[in-house]
Amino acid sequence: MTLRFGSVSSDLDLDARGRRAGQFGLTHSSDRHAFSTIRAPLGVIRGDDGPTALVCAGNHGDEYEGQIIVRRLFERLAPEDVSGRLILAPALNMPSVEAATRLSPLDGGNLNRSFPGLPFGGPTCEIAGFVATQLMPLADLAVDLHSGGTGTEYLDAAYLCLTGISARDAQTRGLALAMGLPFAMVVPPGDTPGDFDSAAHDAGCAMLSCESGGEGKVSRRALEAGWQGVLRVLADQGMLADGVAERMGATPAQQTRFLDLGAGAAHLTSDHHALAEPLVRIGQTVETGQPVTRLRDLHRLDAGVLDLIAPCDGVVAIRRSTGIVAPGDHLAVITPELDARSLDALLNQACAA
Ligand SMILES: [Zn+2]
């Protein structure tokens, strides 16, 4: 059976038992692609009866750890290791993966703002529509792996994207704990319209995304954190046979600290064209009033320095890593830590809104 949305299609058999590698293809008419199809890898591993997990990366093309993790799953897992079905898409937005860019060079589209997609709405919207209408409805669980991209560095963190639906949010909280990364960011409902997470929730999937590393590099630390996190989630869902996650290198989950990436978070933003000096490292706990970034005028030696200070206590969750900054550029995000009671309150508040 052919899966198709607009000009994106795949003939890969996702139903039969076994492990198969295929592709989905995007037909796009441009000078370069007038007589070709842009192919992206798609894999399936189907073992005994069980749930279906859709594990994706390459949503943004300049984020690499997730792309490696999804390919590793295909390389290392056999059908007998899996209870259920893994659908693996390591390069969702292949035009941006090929170009190592966040956005598609074909149409400037940001795949993670293009869901649920539009038939014949341009390449990025069509890939989003293919994922949302052809793959997500098959899945009980969706996992989308991100990194910081070229210009930023992120904590190794699961993302608890709240929906305001109590049972769904409790489920995502459980998944974030199962992932066992050092941190989980709590994101308020509707924070990122058009993203993968919202589309997966709309399709009825349990959903977890995560961030690890960034700066346009492959970090071994972030890669291993993400790899272990994905194995733990699949094991938690009963999708890996006993001992498989350990055989693949999974260690016990770490204690996860929850951070408020919503109203409680503070963005430190430049008002100047400047050279930025980081004064803190990613994941560092800072106190109110602590200098976080030092700015220097680009053109004058005698203008003095300007320190941007933390307006609240919290953890440095996101840090810009480019040296030259402009007015409006966010340089860091300080996220207050949520204890169990304040996390409960935030989830209840989301449901009441
Ligand atoms: Zn991303």
TrEMBL record:
A GO molecular-function annotation: hydrolase activity, acting on ester bonds
Xref: Gene3D superfamilies: Zn peptidases
A family per Pfam: AstE_AspA_cat
Succinylglutamate desuccinylase/Aspartoacylase catalytic domain mapped to chain residues: 49-235
UniProt cross-references to InterPro entries, sorted A to Z: AstE_AspA_cat, N-alpha-Ac-DABA-like, N-alpha-Ac-DABA_deacetylase
Key words of the record: Hydrolase, Metal-binding, Zinc
Cofactor(s) recorded in Swiss-Prot or TrEMBL: Zn(2+)
Signal peptide segment: none
Name of the molecule in the record: Succinylglutamate desuccinylase
Organism of derivation: Palleronia sediminis
